[in-house]
């Protein structure tokens, strides 16, 4: 089975969601189904059908999270021997040549990327262009809006 890289924080977030679904949401939905059944005929019982639909969604999400965690290769960026290069999990401060703005990104797994929080997927064009580069390097990245140039101002492994 193919392993998928994931940061410790990403794995912890998935574990917390899985725990919440199993210990809070699943029992709550089961109780809703039980209550709806007690109202009699379930063939026309909207509460019962809504609860069963919710149960299907939650069970699907539980299965999805369990698969993601089972195939995860959890990587702690603090323990990676990177020798000052950009690697998975690294946090980078970059200068965008076009806007002259500093941007900060952490390279994370596909399932944990959130651009609004500065977390970019290892599969993204920017991350792929940055992997293996060093402090001071300038990289050109083909993005939907054209070619962007970034200078690496700092690299940290937190």
Structure description:
- The chain is of the alpha/beta class and 158 residues long.
- The protein has two domains: 4-75, Transcription elongation factor, GreA/GreB, N-terminal domain (Helix Hairpins, Orthogonal Bundle); 77-156, Roll (Chitinase A, domain 3), CATH 3.10.50.
- It is built from three helices and seven strands.
- It has helices at 8-37, 46-70, 125-130; strands spanning 4-7, 72-75, 91-96, 101-108, 119-121, 138-143, 146-156.
- The protein has a five-stranded mixed sheet with strand order 5-4-3-7-6. Strands 1-2 form a two-stranded parallel ribbon.
- A hairpin with a 2-residue loop joins strand 6 and strand 7.
- Helix 1 (8-37) packs antiparallel against helix 2 (46-70).
- The radius of gyration is 22 Å and the shape is elongated.
- The two termini are 28 Å apart.
- The mean pLDDT is 93.
What attributes characterize this protein structure?
158 residues, alpha/beta, Helix Hairpins, Chitinase A, domain 3, 2 domains, two-stranded parallel sheet
Helix and strand composition category = alpha/beta
Strand order within the widest beta sheet: 5-4-3-7-6
Question: What would you say the CATH architecture of the largest domain is?
Answer: Roll
CATH topology of the largest domain: Chitinase A, domain 3
Shape: elongated
Portion of residues in beta strands equals 25-35%
């Amino acid at each position: 089975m193919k392993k998928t890289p994931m940061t410790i924080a990403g794995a912890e977030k998935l574990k917390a969601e899985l725990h919440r679904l199993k210990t809070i949401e699943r029992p709550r939905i089961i109780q809703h189904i039980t209550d709806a059944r007690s109202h009699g005929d379930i063939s026309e019982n909207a509460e019962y059908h809504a609860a069963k639909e919710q149960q299907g969604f939650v069970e699907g999400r539980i299965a999805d999270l369990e698969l993601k965690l089972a195939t995860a290769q959890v990587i702690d960026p603090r323990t990676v021997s990177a020798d000052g290069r950009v690697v998975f999990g690294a946090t980078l401060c970059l200068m965008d040549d076009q806007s002259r703005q500093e941007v900060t990104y952490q390279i994370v797994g596909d399932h944990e990327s959130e651009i609004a929080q500065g977390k970019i997927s290892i599969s993204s064009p920017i991350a792929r262009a940055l992997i293996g580069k060093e402090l001071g390097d300038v990289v050109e990245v083909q993005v939907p809006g054209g070619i962007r140039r970034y200078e690496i101002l700092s690299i940290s492994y937190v």
